[in-house]
DNA sequence: GTGAAAGCGCTAACAG
DNA sequence: CTGTTAGCGCTTTCAC
């Protein structure tokens, strides 16, 4: 089913052309003597002002006469001057850089979060330095250390479980820190949280309201997914339900993992359905009716998508025999066949909140702020 | 079909607790007098050596006696010293930072590219500073300028169409630059290319070999997607085929856009099928047979996925009446129903190549290197 | 193998 | 509004 036609363009590499290439790049628009990089004082000399004035034109234009600024800008243009923020950062102790440590960008929510975080900060003149912790082999402490050695003005950290050395470093750094996408009993500083346990509980409640009493959960092995999964299972049991399976999926979540997990569940699933109700397959388990369907909560939409695909392949009717709820509200969830129910958390909102919190603190507002971002269950045909 | 149950946890924000919070973070493991940040000379003083020696322990341990190094490391540990790479960078003119400018991380190929690029570089002591250009309102020149002002030691740039000011800045920066994922008639420096026109041509050839003579293409409005789409259409016509539609999709590509595009194509599609062959729907258009099916090339797997979903919803048989090929080899393409044919380019490979090129140059190898990365058509049930 | 002196390119702080 | 002076914290370079 998956032949591969190789139309490779494996041409041999173009012949090396020597590094001279770089030097003779397009006709220098503004020929400069020698290779010496242009610096602030060069601009100052050309403009006939003091270096400090050039600095002001760049960082506080309102403190300079329009005429002077004009001359300086002309010189900047003429020389092709690119400011050195490394030097500026050392001198001012402000790098105008905010670090963000998130596990992955593969998850649309994080992608959205980072995107919005970046947008808000960039508008205020800050650049975002992104670090992905998810794939990394480094310990979190090592990562945080590496990040802090670049002296960011502030830091966003996804997750809120941090070991003592990490917390110590963060405290010593004495910069605003915002933890996001998690709950923390004792946040390091500011927090834009998502109550993952509440998500699991809410999904269980949702399924119970629909009349389900048989449950299953596929949860990735990361902290927050587990939290959701465990809360789901616990709430399901507390409500008198039976949890047929709590499958742990190795992170990161994939569609393939969802398929596999469902395949393993297939016998249990079928048997349970028969045992409990004996209803002919295809019977509608309407909301409120104590139907025979198993209610499955997946810790990621990717997993849910895979599970649905496998269910379809095996003739398991959805939602009649298997009801599914995912997490993340990926675009996928609406386009899937059938579209499936999922939990939506607005990454955009988290990102904007987090950025605003940090900016306020950088502006001198001393409040330590914390919010809990809401989530909602988006109901679709799978449940 | 899409009710939304709101189980918001819109609790009021936890009450502000004052910024003191940060200061009294977990019992300081290593109490330090005052708040003054620890610097190299502090470590030196504690270890009883010159600052330079501490620097050596950190950057060239082999040039220091084991015993001395031991004492220094103890002092570092004791003081919780975090080196200041901003100062180090200014002094040494090496920031140990490599910048990467890519349009998006939403595309798995770029995600993979960046991931591998980062891995290879990190192993050699470089950090990657990532900038997403795709969403950005800034001009490319402005973005590059902002990036260069942080003085990266090297730069990766996705795409190879750059305006004069950008090229000038890059040349002036005098750092290794690698352009990726594009062809360039005149690369700035090094190149790890993908021949997008060749992709379009190859897909057209593939469809023709399967006996198709009716074609359509959905291409996003970004440069490279267009290149693929145009080459596809051109090759299709050159082969004597008819191109029923060349739909431009506003970037970024989404599943929804794919659905919409197919919906618009529906009348044309149906009519064309009837006109050309009059074959009863459902007839198998086998490879080599001059079947009635329309062969659709989508510039992204997301678009292809959407198109397939819409086709299914409208009872268009795949591949009997509509053959589909995507681009990107997203995980989606294999999990879709039916799984669909797509073009695979290994982002991982591009990332590793690019990193290696840059590292070599940073190590003093002067060769300007260029490679073309191969692609392949992964055949699945949709064609 | 270790140390002392002299900046890296910019901006804070204070004058004028 | 503009200029001067003195570093920011580290590494280069050269002594010892």
Label the overall shape of chain A. Answer: elongated
Order of helices and strands of chain A: EHHHHHEHEHEHEEHEHEHEHEHEHEE
Largest Cβ-defined interface: A-B, 108 and 108 residues
Number of strands of chain A: 13
Number of helices of chain A: 14
Fraction of helical residues of chain A: 40-55%
How large is the radius of gyration of chain A?
A: 28 Å
Explained architecture:
The structure is a homodimer of 383-residue chains. With 383 residues, chain A is of the alpha/beta class. Helices cover 43% and strands 17% of the residues of chain A. In chain A, the strands form two sheets. In chain A, strands 3-2-4-5-6-12 form a six-stranded parallel sheet, sandwiched between helices. A six-stranded mixed sheet of chain A has the order 8-7-9-10-11-13, with helices on both faces. The longest helix of chain A is centred in the C-terminal third of the chain and has 23 residues, at 255-277. The model of chain A is unreliable at 1-33 and 275-291 (pLDDT under 50). Strand 1 (4-5) of chain A pairs antiparallel with strand 13 of chain B, so a sheet runs across the interface. The structure holds a DNA duplex (16 and 16 nucleotides).
């Amino acid at each position: 089913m998956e032949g591969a036609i190789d139309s490779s363009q494996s041409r041999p590499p173009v012949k090396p052309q020597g590094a001279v290439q770089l030097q003779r790049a397009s006709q220098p628009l503004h020929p400069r003597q020698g290779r010496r990089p242009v610096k602030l004082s060069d601009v100052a000399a050309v403009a006939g002002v003091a270096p400090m004035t050039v600095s002001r034109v760049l960082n506080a234009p309102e403190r300079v006469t329009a005429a002077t600024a004009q001359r300086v800008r002309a010189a900047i243009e003429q020389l092709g001057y690119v400011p050195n923020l490394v030097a500026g950062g050392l001198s001012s102790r402000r790098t105008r850089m905010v670090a963000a440590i998130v596990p992955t960008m593969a998850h649309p929510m994080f992608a959205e979060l980072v995107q919005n975080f970046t947008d808000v900060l960039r508008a205020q003149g800050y650049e975002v330095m992104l670090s992905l912790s998810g794939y990394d082999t480094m310990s979190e402490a090592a990562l945080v250390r590496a990040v802090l050695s670049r002296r960011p003005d502030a830091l966003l950290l996804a997750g809120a479980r941090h070991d003592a050395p990490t917390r110590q470093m963060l405290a010593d750094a004495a910069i605003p820190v915002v933890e996001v996408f998690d709950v923390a009993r004792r946040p390091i500083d500011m927090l834009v949280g998502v109550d993952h346990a509440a998500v699991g509980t809410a999904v269980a409640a949702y399924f119970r309201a629909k009349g389900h009493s048989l449950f299953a959960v596929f949860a990735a092995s990361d902290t927050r997914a587990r939290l959701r999964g465990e809360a789901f299972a616990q709430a399901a049991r507390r409500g008198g339900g039976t949890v047929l399976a709590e499958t742990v999926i190795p992170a990161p979540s994939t569609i393939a993992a969802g398929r596999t997990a469902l395949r393993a569940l297939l016998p249990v699933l079928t048997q349970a359905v028969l045992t409990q109700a004996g209803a002919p397959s295809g019977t509608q388990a309407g909301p409120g009716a104590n139907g025979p369907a198993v209610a499955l909560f997946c810790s990621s939409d990717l997993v849910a998508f895979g599970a649905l695909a496998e269910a379809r392949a095996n003739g398991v009717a959805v939602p009649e025999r298997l009801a599914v709820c995912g997490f993340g509200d990926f675009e996928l969830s609406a386009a899937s066949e059938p579209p499936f129910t999922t939990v939506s958390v607005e990454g955009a909102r988290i990102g904007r909140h987090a950025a605003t919190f940090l900016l306020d603190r950088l502006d001198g507002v001393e409040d330590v702020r914390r919010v809990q971002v809401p989530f909602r269950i988006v109901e679709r045909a799978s449940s």
